């Protein structure tokens, strides 16, 4: 077995526990160990991506127990992509947290950060539906600790709301798993792929119920309308670096939909394929509309970015709901783009809030320190997020519109284009109040330390967006192959070596 596959889960788990025990060693040791751990995770993720590119799917059987009885981790192109994206973002966000001193405002920041990465990596690698639930719970615990980091009544109230919504998702997940296990006798994803396809017609209703429950669970994780209520308050009140890392958390829901609904409930499945695709598309369009309206009416910059993340989720799921290789490849490109753009905007919102009394968008406030640089970075990030050329958001939306050509084109295209226009107005309003009209106050800019590392992290994220645009062709070659592997999961099933399951 390839033992490298378990390291993205094992390394942050061990290192995070060590940092909890080594709390008295001081913040300097915590920072050094935490940053070193995320850098090593990034190097491991890149190595696994190289392996996934050159070899078929690989399975890692913990304890040597065979599937479907043991715990199995499976590495393929999609899992490797999500590992690299998460680790790269984690490194830059952690640098920002150290540079701005956010990690010093509470205890165990770096330990919780590593546990969060453990949950994310485990969710991307697991080949078992029950262990997907387990890693979701690890994510929930760690993310709650990060969300309320440094305390405060408003942050605590938003954290309770966040936990309450996600506990509902946990309960629904358990109901879905119980239904699946009761009907099929297994929760291994590859095993489910074979057994669901061979079920008698009498069990079709139960399988539909399980599929709808899973769709609700993943919809809550991804913040699809009407299951999005937890996200604006959570992301707007979380510490800036934490919210930036959370930009990848909504993508866990999208990943789970792609993994489960192409493997266990493929679009060709009678009675369920069209049902799930239709539900997803309707929710995606509603999510995009709500997100765009939220961007236009947001009262703070952080809340504006939170609604921009919701709009990005809606755009992403329009492509996911297509359930074709072309649509999936477009969705994966937009997933990378929206994660990086959302993280950049949250980091910028943190820089703005630190230089003035909040980030309100009701009235113009005096200029801030490093006013010109922050304004320029905000302009680039906003144009990228809304999908203006020549940025990667424009390419991603173009691919999604191209993939959606067909009977529903007259519905999808107007909503996507109109929402983009609405968000342009929302970003223009925010930029005008924050940077342009600020000079009308006629007062000097506030003073604040330069924090070059914090700015460097933001610039690095925007540089990654630029690279995504410049190298769109080779990126799409990888994503096209990833989508093809998802929609023909023979290698994934074969890696589990399940008896009686035909690839």
Short description:
By secondary structure, the chain is mainly α. It has helices at 7-21, 27-54, 77-100, 109-125, 129-147, 153-184, 189-197, 204-222, 230-237, 240-246, 250-263, 273-297, 301-320, 325-354, 371-386, 392-403, 409-436, 452-470, 472-487, 490-496; strands at 58-61, 72-75.
Secondary-structure element sequence? Answer: HHEEHHHHHHHHHHHHHHHHHH
How many angstroms does the end-to-end distance come to?
20 Å
Q: Which regions have little confidence, pLDDT < 50, spanning 5+ residues?
A: 499-503
DSSP summary: helix tally: 20
Mean pLDDT: 89
Shape: globular
DSSP summary, beta strand count = 2
Helical/strand content category: mainly alpha
Q: Specify the oligomeric state.
A: single chain
Profile the largest sheet: 2 strands, antiparallel
SSE arrangement:
Blueprint: H1 7-21, H2 27-54, E1 58-61, E2 72-75, H3 77-100, H4 109-125, H5 129-147, H6 153-184, H7 189-197, H8 204-222, H9 230-237, H10 240-246, H11 250-263, H12 273-297, H13 301-320, H14 325-354, H15 371-386, H16 392-403, H17 409-436, H18 452-470, H19 472-487, H20 490-496
Antiparallel strand pairs: 1-2
């Amino acid at each position: 077995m390839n033992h490298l596959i378990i390291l993205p889960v094992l390394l942050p788990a061990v290192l995070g526990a060590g940092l909890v025990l080594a709390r008295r060693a001081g913040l300097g040791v915590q920072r050094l160990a935490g940053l070193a751990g995320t850098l090593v995770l990034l190097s491991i993720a890149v190595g696994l991506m190289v392996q996934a590119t050159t070899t078929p799917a690989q399975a890692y059987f913990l304890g040597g127990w065979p599937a479907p009885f043991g715990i199995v981790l499976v590495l393929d192109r999609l899992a490797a992509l999500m590992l690299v994206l998460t680790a790269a973002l984690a490194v830059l966000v952690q640098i920002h947290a150290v540079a701005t001193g956010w990690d010093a405002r509470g205890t165990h920041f770096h330990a919780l950060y590593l546990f969060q990465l453990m949950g994310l990596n485990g969710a991307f690698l697991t080949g078992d539906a029950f262990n997907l639930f387990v890693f979701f719970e690890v994510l929930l615990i760690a993310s709650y600790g990060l969300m309320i980091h440094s305390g405060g009544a408003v942050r605590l109230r938003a954290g309770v709301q966040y936990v309450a919504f996600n506990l509902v998702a946990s309960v629904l997940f358990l109901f879905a798993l119980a239904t699946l296990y009761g009907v099929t006798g297994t929760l291994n994803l590859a095993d489910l792929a074979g057994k669901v396809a061979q079920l008698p017609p009498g069990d079709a209703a139960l399988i539909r119920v399980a599929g709808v429950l899973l769709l609700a669970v993943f919809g809550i994780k991804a913040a699809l309308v009407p299951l999005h209520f937890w996200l604006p308050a959570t992301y707007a009140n979380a510490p800036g670096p934490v919210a930036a890392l959370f930009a990848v958390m909504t993508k866990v829901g999208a990943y789970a939909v792609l993994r489960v609904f192409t493997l266990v409930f493929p679009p060709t499945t009678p009675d369920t394929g069209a049902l799930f695709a239709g539900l997803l598309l309707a929710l995606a369009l509603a999510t995009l509309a709500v997100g765009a309206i939220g961007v236009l009416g947001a009262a703070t910059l952080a809340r504006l970015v939170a609604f921009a993340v919701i709009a990005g989720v809606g755009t992403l799921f329009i492509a996911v709901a297509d359930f074709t290789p072309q649509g999936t490849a477009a969705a994966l490109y937009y997933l990378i783009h929206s994660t990086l753009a959302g993280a950049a905007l949250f980091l910028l919102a943190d820089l703005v809030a630190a230089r003035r009394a909040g980030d309100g968008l009701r009235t113009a406030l005096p200029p801030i320190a490093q006013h010109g640089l922050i304004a320029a970075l905000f302009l680039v990030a906003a144009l990228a997020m809304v999908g203006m050329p020549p940025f990667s958001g424009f390419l991603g939306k173009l691919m999604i519109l191209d993939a959606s050509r067909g009977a529903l084109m007259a519905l999808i295209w107007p909503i996507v284009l109109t929402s983009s226009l609405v968000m342009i107005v929302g970003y223009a309003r925010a930029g005008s109040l924050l940077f342009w009209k600020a000079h009308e106050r006629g007062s000097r800019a506030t003073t604040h330390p330069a924090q070059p590392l914090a700015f460097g992290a933001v610039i690095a994220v925007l540089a990654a967006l630029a690279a995504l645009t410049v190298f769109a062709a080779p990126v799409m070659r990888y994503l096209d192959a990833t989508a093809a592997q998802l929609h023909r999961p023979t290698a994934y099933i074969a890696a589990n070596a399940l008896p009686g399951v035909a690839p």
